[in-house]
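re: ur question from the group chat, yeah i did fold both. here u go
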Amino acid sequence: MGNRMNEVTPFSRAIMKAHLCSCGVNYASLDKPVIAVANSWNEIVPGHVHLRQVADRVKRGIEQADGVALEFNTIAVCDGIAQGHKGMKYSLPSRETIADSVEIMVEAHGIFDGLVVLSSCDKIVPGMLMAAARLNLPGLAVLGGVMPNHIKPKESKAARRAFLDGKLDEKGLVEITNQYYPGPGACPFLGTANTMQGMTEALGMALPNTSWMQALSEEQLDAAEAAGRQAVELVRQGIKPRDIMTREAFENAISVLLAMGGSLNACLHLPAIAHEAGIELPMELFDTISRRVPFLAGVTPNNQEYTTNDLQRAGGMSALMQELRPLIRTGALTVTGRSVGENIEGAEVLDRDVIRELSKPLDAEGGIAVLKGNLAADGALVKQSAVPEELRTFAGPAKVFQSEEEFEEAYEAGRISEGDAVIIRYEGPKGGPGMRELHRCTEILGKFKRVALVTDGRFSGASAGLSIGYASPEAAEGGTLALVEDGDLVEIDIAARSLNVRVSEAELAARAERLEVLKKEAARFLRLYAGQTTSAASGAVRR
């Protein structure tokens, strides 16, 4: 087993070691494997506020395995705090910044033999995995786990509705919300945070059943220590992320995503991670797998009784993958050095109300569907597991808005009606810029019984109802979404996978001739992002 510092010239190596000794590193230890610990701790994000303690246990494990742990930090944005204002424009772009910052720290210093990444929330987990795939140093991901929930999802949802309806004040909403979000860890519902924690394990990049451990539990801290030891072992064995994150592994992750009705954002992040590993995951693949993988695990927002804490109690990822065993690639390698099949051998489902039998699913198809038609030629996404049966076919007149703010003003003015097809455009990767989540919009529309939302923006994993997003090409690229006018009939059929506006091709062509694409003012960082990003259909990866 080599030491990367031995690859540089003797003089440079000596100076490297001198600087590290200045930081308190023992000179005698510097011929051991040096493991980077990339931590996304900060005091702002609930899913990350405890990662200092978790990192300490990871580093202890590395040292137990006779390695040297050196920790550095990167950024993390809380989507819950960024939601509903212009700050959300920065969330998706932060994914690339995280991956870049880890690359910079590892490659600029040239001293690391392995890499452990610590994170738990929406864009941070995929950003870290993108860095791991890009750098391809032996190592693994350590996940921040989940906060407990002291009330049911339906109680939290009722409190939010009461606030929106003027029946609960701010202090009352904060007090009830803190019973649902009581402390450190990812928010307990199956949003993007917990979806991507699950995807990390399903890909084989985290130790078994660590996706949804309770944050700061002894179980989680012991697992973090074990992960540190395993990082050194992976260096010794020469097992690298691209040996693990193969096409088979990504298909496994997609199967799990669909079986648990996970966040639509995973359809952005899995292709972006795969892209770093030299693998392409077209949007159509998600739909192909969705037609053969049933929906098995109903936790919020697909069910208002259970959270990911219940999913962990029911047996966690190992139990879910064991139930999916006939439909996944059990030979895929994982960070344990063993296959998926070996890792899940003997796992049992402990609560059949949470994880259904493969032969008795909640739905015969997976939780996500890809819709196409003249309104989204390259595809749009809907979480079909969270759409009531009566809304799976829909036709209604378009009400068109150029931004989230414009929609909210119309709602406050009482201009949204039952039966409307709400179109919110110029919120895509380029048009936003930054592709905001429009979760607050889906919450607002929850008061209506029959309304659709179609956007080139995206949704929180907590969003439900007939919410169709990620429409590609986006309005800023001249997609048909930019051509829709108030009153046009929008037709949606989830079973048929169709999304259309009933306007003739000739009329759409005439509108395209006179279209002036809206360009929003944006800060310099977002302008740079808009110039580099690609379509949601390709994961919004950078050119």
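okk and heres the other one u asked abt
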Amino acid sequence: MTLHRRSRPRWALVLALLAACEARTPPAPPAASGAPALASAAAAPQAASAAAATTAAPPPEPLPPEPPIALASGGARAVRGDAGLVTSVEENATRVGADVLRRGGNAIDAAVAVAFALAVTHPSAGNIGGGGFMMVRLANGETQAVDFREAAPASVTTESNMAMVRAGAFGYASAGVPGSVAGLALAHERFGTRPLAELLAPAIALARKGHRLGARQALTLRWAWPRLRTDRAASAIWGRGKAPLAQGELVRQLDLARTLETLAAEGPRAFYEGAIARKIAAAMRERGGHISEADLRAYQARWRAPLRFSYRGFTVDTMPPPSMGGVALAEIMLTLERLKAHEAPVDSGLSLHLFVEAAKRAYADRRKVSADPDFVGPEPAQLLAKLLDGGYLMGRAPAVDPERATPAGDIAAPAGALAPESPQTTHFSVIDAQGNAVSCTTTQSASFGARIVIPGTGILLGNAMGAFSETGINAVAPGKRMASSMTPTIVSRDDKVALLLGSPGGDTIPNTVAQVLRNLVDHGMTIDEAVRHGRIHHQWLPDRVRVERLTPPPQAALDDLARRGHAVVLDPMPIGDANNILVDAAGVAWGYADTREGGTAEGVSVPAKLEPAAQADAPQATEQVETPRK
């Protein structure tokens, strides 16, 4: 086993996303991910109007490169995993997942254990009181998406929800019905191999015995402390008197340990129907919240068909609505492929300009189609099929000018205020020796969510209700999920996993995933180089290019962006935290934990001295390699 310690902060195809299946009834698996599954209905010749027939024929669809692109293996700072690999933002959680793989669990088992551990050790985003999205790909090529985004309680109205937002979007009224326990249980029930109680045991131990507060966790705690300290249950966990705990101090969560023990003994429905549900509902009644026992009973995680597209010979499976992130990622990458942006040198002004122009259009489009598919008619899915059609992308107005920036207002008219999405989320990736893989992003929405803990449970609730819009397809409705930028993504080729991608970062998530994907596929970087590389961000509005001050592109590229008409802003805040994995042609996994937030990647090795037939039953050898903290 190798261990990498990170330093401190730094989409013709077809659309497969039409209806989501009922919880616990997975959809028919998509076609093998080595070939594109879908072709846009909007591109069907029989559907073309007479007017369209008079227009110029759309450009031909790009052909896969020949020879196929070879991904770069290795990496000076990358972690190798011959029999599996885990990478996450927090070292205890990473270790928990790697240990599950060593004991014979598969990637889904390990991912469930990691997620529950993060609820203990990385509470700013890891959770059982919030939600998330998970992409699962089995070694046989079956790929599924699990939607466990939070849902609106039945009593919430647009008026009450907007009043909550205006009041700061924190507290009991900001919490949606949590989805994480249901989502993790759904994935485990379908694909897991180890008992759920076994996978919960490490999280229980971390909560009961305690763990030392990490550097990133201490930093986010300090940011959230002014509100956390006003909640008695929260301040009792993370405070000493009037001050928050500091890095290295012991955090014990006995109430959370008991809650997790109840889940281990009684199963996930204890959270939604048992004593835990009663405690949540009682606290809500007493403190002005909306979640009722009926809301909790009604919640179900959903299987969704992944949003699938091809990019330069690779098949990309990403999260469909209610994710806005997968939509944006697909449009960005499909546009860049047709613009042949990969021919521009890395970090050149032209390369960055084409990326920004693709991103601006994708971000303007994504809010038109990204909402809970259980609550909208067929129009958003039909529009999405159009948006991801190559003819539309190359024929839309205004076209991408390779020399000049298109003003954001020329792309689309602003439709009211666009609330920024909180960047405090977390992403982890897992692959096992057989090739099963999980890419998962979870969130409390804001850092530490609603910043309240349900008394007697240790459950820190998220504040995702603020992600609903006042009007439009993302407006609140009872039981509806709110849109999100989370973009867990799995890339494959020839029926084999190639990349596990994802990131936190709110609105920046799709751009982060797109840039890491470009670095790996277009620019031949190793996984550590691709993740460490500097990032930029443009989300249509505001009309500016955000650049990481600590890892900027060359000054000549920034000057070139300005010459083309872009407003460039250097920002001290990092963009994203890409805990990602690459699998090379030999089947070896290479992982890296992004240095922007601090965490670990840990690989599992097969003992070298045993014959292959004996390796499966042998204990896993371990080897640890550390990189010094800065």
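fwiw on the second one: The CA atoms of residues 151 and 195 lie 28 Å apart. DSSP finds 21 helices and 24 strands in the chain. idk if thats what u expected
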